[in-house]
């Protein structure tokens, strides 16, 4: 064997679940993979359990790891976000040489990625922050990958990432998203959309369960049917699986035994924080993040359950709502709310891209999110088509196809929001998405009044619909208007 063939094309640092699965994915695709983990036991476990799946070069020190990589060296870091990632980046940078590429495949905050890229570039190395979606299963069998960083590193990295990414219609679910933090930003918003997507499914479940009185198995069947239509997606598919699961010990549907407090690791929250800074309303994602927070407020909830006045509540029967019609209405409300959440997510990506000069192409995202990632859905093909037809769309909702969909969804959506309110079931994303939609299409918004109030108490001035310029009314004087 030549010296060259003893070297690895790619290295993985951090061999917990995601890192090991990614390393195995590379090896199964025929690449030689260098391995390093702070504690060697994880490296050893991987070799013992999966060493036969391909060519691995395990290393006990970061120096040996770096020495085992072909140039330009390419190392993917899969360790905890934050301080651990910084520590590993520094160790790698110390051992690497000019032109080598450090890839952070974790869920880093994009502003950290921007900072790291700058620091690493000053040392003559390339830094690529890459969002990787798909969970454990995706890492092993084909994730959706969103790499940022310098365009020139994509040349050395692209084919490797393409070989392990998910594939849809012959297209790999990976592409260079844009410079520095673009990849992690887009991955962050992807996760935010995922929060909203999961929440709208949750709201549909809530209504069918506690509004229509269906049992989990019946609802699982409904979701299976929905998965054959416009809502065909990974999340709808796994929802049916979760709802079908029966606890072996008690014979009770598992869903009824799971504590109803949702966890979160932070990417949804980041998405909302970034949106606030960019001034982009991502109400669907925001409500989804808050819904998880509320679910976790155990003490407040325990104090409130059965203890707050509900007002007079109705039921589907009392309202004369036929179950079959209601189920279809709920499907449509879910679809419409999901559409709003995606439209808002794409708005945030555009705003982030404009702010940072990333030049992110929304068509790329609709393409690479079709497979591998958690929000993979048939629906993304439609988003791709929408941006193909008009890359400058003011909002996805105005795409002719989605507009025609909305025309057939809107009446159901309104009915569901009304009925849910009458039966007292929470639907934060369904309801706020409808308000967002009505706000967008409203001829006049109460913002005029807010401007009046602001001018009254703070002389903040207002614009007029009939004249150019800024105006102020002398509220505490004779109430004449002056132009300022
Ligand atoms: P996952 O979510 O996939 O389980 P994680 O919790 O994000 O993984 O990251 C865990 C990985 O980060 C482990 O490989 C861990 O190394 P150890 O096995 O030695 O604990 C690695 N890690 C955490 N902190 C680290 C640090 N300061 N330096 C190097 N690696 C670190």
TrEMBL record:
Residues 183-476 form the 6-phosphogluconate dehydrogenase C-terminal domain. Catalyzes the oxidative decarboxylation of 6-phosphogluconate to ribulose 5-phosphate and CO(2), with concomitant reduction of NADP to NADPH. The keyword Ribonucleoprotein does not apply. It comes from Corynebacterium felinum. This is 6-phosphogluconate dehydrogenase, decarboxylating. Pathway: Carbohydrate degradation; pentose phosphate pathway; D-ribulose 5-phosphate from D-glucose 6-phosphate (oxidative stage): step 3/3. Pfam families: 6PGD (PF00393), NAD_binding_2 (PF03446). Gene3D superfamilies: 6-Phosphogluconate Dehydrogenase, domain 3 (1.20.5.320), N-(1-d-carboxylethyl)-l-norvaline Dehydrogenase, domain 2 (1.10.1040.10), NAD(P)-binding Rossmann-like Domain (3.40.50.720). Keywords: Gluconate utilization, NADP, Oxidoreductase, Pentose shunt. InterPro entries: 6-PGluconate_DH-like_C_sf (IPR008927), 6PGD_dom2 (IPR013328), 6PGDH_C (IPR006114), 6PGDH_Gnd/GntZ (IPR006113), 6PGDH_NADP-bd (IPR006115), 6PGdom_BS (IPR006184), NAD(P)-bd_dom_sf (IPR036291), Pgluconate_DH (IPR006183). SUPFAM superfamilies: 6-phosphogluconate dehydrogenase C-terminal domain-like (SSF48179), NAD(P)-binding Rossmann-fold domains (SSF51735). Homodimer. Its EC number is 1.1.1.44. Belongs to the 6-phosphogluconate dehydrogenase family. It catalyses: 6-phospho-D-gluconate + NADP(+) = D-ribulose 5-phosphate + CO2 + NADPH. GO terms for molecular function: phosphogluconate dehydrogenase (decarboxylating) activity. PANTHER family: 6-PHOSPHOGLUCONATE DEHYDROGENASE.
